[in-house]
Design goal:
The protein is of the alpha+beta class. The chain has 10 helices and 13 strands. The longest helix is centred in the middle third of the chain and has 54 residues, at 134-187.
Length: 476
Amino acid sequence: MVSIFLSLVAIEFVVFIPSYFQRRADKLRELEAVSEEVLLTLKANVMQDMLSTELLASAQANLSPDTIILGAALYDERGQRLDSFGEAPVLMSPAGGLDDIQRLLTVNGTRYDVAWPSRQFQERYVLVIRHDATSVKRYMVQYSFGIFCIVILISAFLTLITMILLGRMVIYPLLLLRDDLCHAAKVVDQPDLAEFKSLNHTWRGELGEVIRAFAAMFGQISQEVQERQQAEAALRSEQEKTEALLQNVLPVAIANRLKNDLSNRTAIASRFENVTILFADIVGFTKLAAHTAPTDLVCQLNDIFSVFDTLAERHGLEKIKTIGDAYMVVGGVPAPMANHAEAVMAMAIDMQRAVKRHPFKLRIGINTGPVVAGVIGKKKFSYDLWGDTVNVASRMESHGVVDRIQVSADTHTLLKDKFHFEDRGCIDVKGRGRMHTYLWMPLPLEALSPVASGRAPMLKNVLWGSGEAADQSPSL
């Protein structure tokens, strides 16, 4: 608003400046009309061949007492002063005469000198008359103040009218459009909540085109945002499925390492000095497979192994794989555990309790020792264990007793103070010769200590094999 006002003031002042100088020139011309009386008298005296000293005296005698003529000076054609009276003005042109009338404001604009050319006096004289221009100066001050007031009033009026028109036709629609733009940013993904005030009016011209273009653009962007959100939601869903599938196949830590190094993957392997491995085999499953439909057979096997998976998760153990009707699990890998042997033994007991509800029987073998664990190859990744500890654990199962849990001497050393075992003595183990093994004995008051940092439940006062205990294992 201020800029509009100042612009109008500047424009009007530019317009009024020429009129100011024109008005001053007109007022000065009025002063010359008074001095023409002196000019006419002087011309008449020149024609009578009066002396130069008598010319101005005669002209001065004809002046009224309140005249605005303050003085005059008579010069010859060479520029020499011949006579003067009052405030004698100075000739404004060099010697040789004047071609035309010359005018000059002097003494701060209060004196107005007019030089009449020599042709007015038969090429003999040049007359310079000084006028009192104080009234002209006073009038021009009043005139300037009047112009200033008019300029201010006109500028203020035009500014007010301009602001009203701009406010109604431009500023108000722009403010509505600004608010709608801020609102659009908040509801771009929820077009049902979009309420644009600028669309409630009918705007004409370019501004109306802009508002309509904004509405069309919002609709297009909103549709694209919704489509993108749907695509992102579908992508996240698929990513979550992929993540769940990957973490179901591999341990979480190993899966994360594979994702971070999938483009140029090196072998992922770590050595663990002390872990406990369990092998379990369903006795008689091969004979059962010959007399059972494949679908029923797989369903039964899936039910059993699903229970085993739940037990492994409950006890904080890592399932490695299933091979036919054999099940392999380990404690202390890939995250080390202080009580890995105890957790594996607790799971073995729960496995035996769970399978009693099924016509199957288990043969379980456990061994403790060092292993190397990791993922090798580039396709169909599988987390696996390597080392003699794995072989011995497998032999503990294959040379074990049906419906019993057989452990090696290394595992017995870790568990003998917490579980009751029967010394089986030394048995012949394929590829290993004679080995000392032990069989777990389920006593009536057998109890399990907490394992896996509290993740495995403590089974107290269980009447193993009696069927009277409160079974905490998953049912088949």
